[in-house]
Amino acid sequence: MAVALTDIGTGPPLVLLHGWTVDRSFFGRQMPLARQGYRLLAPDLPGHGERASAGGPATMAALADDLAYLLAAEHLEGAILVGWSMGAMLALELLARGPTPALAGLVIVDMSPRIANDAEWRHGLAGGQDMDETRAAADRMHRNWGDYAGRIARSMFAEGREGDDGLVADATSRIAARDPALMAGYWRSLAEADHRATVARLSVPVLAIAGGRSRLYRSGVATWIAATAPQGHAITLPDAGHAPHLEQPDAFNATVARFAAGL
Q1: pLDDT by residue (tens digit) across 126-138?
Q2: What phi and psi, each to the nearest 5 degrees, are found at residue 13?
C-alpha cells in the first residue's frame, strides 16, 4: 500500500492524525517538534490529500485498518497518537480493538467520543445535533459539497480568525477538492461511532486538548475524557477554536512535548 507520509526527525514517534476533509499539511506547524527530539509521522488518510481514493469503504473501521498497517510497517514502538477531530476518533477506533503494544499514549485534540447528542449525552456537537440530524447532514453534503466547503473551513477556527494567516482560505480550497461521496461516507461513520466505553477502558495515558473558542465542541468534553479515562488529563487552550495546533501552535507543541516527556 502506497502511503503519503511526512516522516521527519528521530526519537519517540508522534503519529499525527488529521481531521475529516483535510490532510497532513494541517500539521505543518508541528514540524518544529522534530528539532526537539521527536520523530514526526503525519500520513494522509485514505480519501484525503494525496490519497484521493479511499481504497475501500469510507468508514472509521477501514481507517483503523490503515493505521494499524502503518504502525506495523514502521515498527513504531512507544508511539504517541495525536488525533485531531476525526483523527482522534480513528485512534479510538483502533484502541477499541484492544491494547496496542506499540502505543505509549494518546492525545485527543478537540474531539468528542460521540458526536451525536441525546437526552443523556450533551458533549457531542456544540450545536446540539442528534443522530438523525447528523445523518441528514451527510446527505446534504453529498448533494451540495460546494456549499459546505467554506462552512466547514470556517467552523475549524475561532470566530474572528477568518483572515488570520489565510487559514480559512487555504482550508476551503483543500476541502472543496475532496470527493463529496467519500466525505459524506466518513461523516456517516463518524455519526455512528460511539467510543465513550473505549475511553473508559483505555490502558494508555490520555491528554485531551480543547480549544476554548471551539465552534464545534465545548471544552467540557475534554474534562469528561480526563475524568473517564483511567489515566486522563485535560487542558484548554483559551484562544483556539477547533484547530488549536494551527491557532496556538507554540502552546500546543509545548503541551504535547510535556505530555510525551512525562510518559
Answers
A1: 999 999 999 999 9
A2: -80, 135
**Who contacts 32 (Cβ-Cβ below 8 Å, separation ≥6)?**
253
Helices (H), the chain: 60-73, 86-95, 131-143, 145-155, 167-176, 180-192, 196-200, 220-228, 244-247, 249-261
- CB of 17 within 8 A of CB of 95? no
What's the pLDDT tens digit per position in 175-226? 999 999 999 999 999 999 999 999 999 999 999 999 999 999 999 999 999 9
- Radius of gyration, alpha carbons of the chain: 17
Instruction: Name 40's bridge partners.
Output: 8, 14
How many CB atoms lie under 10 A from the CB of residue 96? 19
| Coil/strand/helix, residue 234 | strand
pLDDT in tens, 42-81: 999 999 999 988 888 999 999 999 999 999 999 988 999 9
C-alpha cell at 59: 468508514
Residue 42 φ then ψ, to 5°? -125, 100
Can you tell me whether residue 34 is helix, strand or coil? helix
